[in-house]
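Hi R.,

Here's the chain you asked about this morning:
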Amino acid sequence: MTKAPPGTGDQRRSQLLRGVLDLCLLALIEERPRYGYELVEALAASGLELVSEGSIYPLLARMERAALIDAYRAPSAAGGAPRKYYRLTGAGQAELTAGRHAWRGFAPAVSRTLHGGTEGERAS
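And here is the predicted structure, written out as tokens:
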């Protein structure tokens, strides 16, 4: 049996997440405007602890340039410097809706392929 290199599981999870991270961020921002570190904390609370601030800020910038989100500054509740909050735009809401629709079709198909049969008939 071939032994997998160390970290392969995390690398695979990271690659899988890369394809849907934008949708995860849009979904979190849809709930309420959030700042960067708050998004990282929410992702970690959902079990996506592999995501760091350094990986989401470039994505947030791309999403802002694409007009899926917009940003504004607001005072910090802790009394520090103002924070940059992100909120969904109409285009961002439409992208999230389309992404959710695509995911509902894609995820069960992958699950069926990986587990054989239908999603409800997984082998133990």
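One quick note: The chain has a mean pLDDT of 87.

Cheers,
M.
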